[in-house]
C-alpha cells in the first residue's frame, strides 16, 4: 500500500517506533533485532536464535513470505493480528488470531519452517515479538514474488489474501 494511502499513526504506535528504534521492514511494518544468540546453530555462521520487535500499524501488512526456520510470534500490545499460514504440501490455509489469550485467540503462535506466512493488524496497531530458530538469515527468506507457483496456488485457494502479496 502506498505510504500516502495509510491512515495516520496511532499515537502509541508512533511512540513505540521511537522508543524501540524501529525501522522499515522489507515485508512491511517496522522492526528492530533485539536478540542474537551467542551460540551457533548447526549451520555455519548462523546463530542458534534471533528475536525482533515488530510493529504493524493500521493499513500495513506483513507480506506473504517464507522462512527456513521455525518462527514464534508473541503478542505484546495493541490490537489483534490475523496471522495466515499456508502449508504448500497440503494446499491449506490456517488463519490464526494473535491476541491476548481468549477462546479464539492465542498470545503465542508457532509457524513451522517452510510455511508461507502473512499478517495484518485488525486495529490501530499491534506490537509483537518474533523469535526465529535457528536464527534468522536473509539467505533463508523468500517473498511471494520470488515464488510465482505459490502465488498461483494462493490465488486459487485463498484469493482474499492476495492483498498480502
Characteristic terms for this protein:
165 residues, mainly beta, Jelly Rolls, six-stranded antiparallel sheet, five-stranded antiparallel sheet, 11 strands
Question: Your description of this structure?
Answer:
- By secondary structure, this protein is mostly beta strands.
- The protein is 12% helix and 41% strand.
- The chain has helices spanning 11-19, 148-157; strands spanning 23-24, 30-36, 50-57, 62-67, 70-78, 81-87, 92-98, 108-111, 116-121, 125-133, 141-143.
- The model has no long low-confidence stretch (mean pLDDT 94).
Could you give a short description of this structure?
The protein has helices at 11-19, 148-157; strands at residues 23-24, 30-36, 50-57, 62-67, 70-78, 81-87, 92-98, 108-111, 116-121, 125-133, 141-143. With 165 residues, the chain is mainly β.
